[in-house]
Write a structure and sequence with these properties.
It is a single chain. By secondary structure, the chain is an all-alpha fold. The chain has two domains: 1-34; 36-123, Tetratricopeptide repeat domain (Serine Threonine Protein Phosphatase 5, Tetratricopeptide repeat, Alpha Horseshoe), CATH 1.25.40.10. 80% of the residues lie in helices and 0% in strands. The chain is built from seven helices and no strands. The chain has helices spanning 2-23, 25-33, 38-50, 54-67, 74-87, 91-99, 106-123. The protein is globular.
């Protein structure tokens, strides 16, 4: 019984922390709107992905790619874009985004292959 109560209390703390985090997104959006850096757009796109806001993640990842930045990893941006697209059912566009990843690290190359296999299966 005590374990069940502890799990319930833990779940409530996690939900409260997530609600607090979710509430800060609008502040982050306002900050990103004032910048010209694609780096901040990427962080926001990743945040949107974490909350299942795939259309917002797509738009923000595209903006990151268009803005660019010295520290912006175009491969990472294309991976996030591809994931956001596939989660919206935009399979053909997702395949294009994944194929835009060039000379990736070994880990990213493996992730790219997995996403492309998934995307190609959805396309058929």
């Amino acid at each position: 019984m005590e374990a069940s109560i502890a799990r319930l209390a833990s779940g409530e703390r996690i939900r409260a922390a997530a609600d607090k985090d979710r509430a800060t997104i609008s502040q982050f959006e306002a900050l990103v709107a004032k910048t010209t850096s694609g780096e901040f757009d990427m962080k926001l796109a990743e945040t949107y992905m974490g909350y299942g806001r795939y259309a917002d993640a797509e738009a923000t990842a595209r903006r990151a790619l268009s803005r660019g930045f010295a520290k912006l990893d175009r491969n990472e941006a294309n991976m996030v874009l591809g994931e956001a697209l596939i989660m919206q059912g935009k399979t053909a566009d997702a395949i294009v985004a994944f194929n835009a990843v060039t000379n990736p690290s070994p880990g990213m190359a493996q992730a790219k292959r997995i996403w492309l296999v998934f995307a190609n299966r959805k396309a058929t």
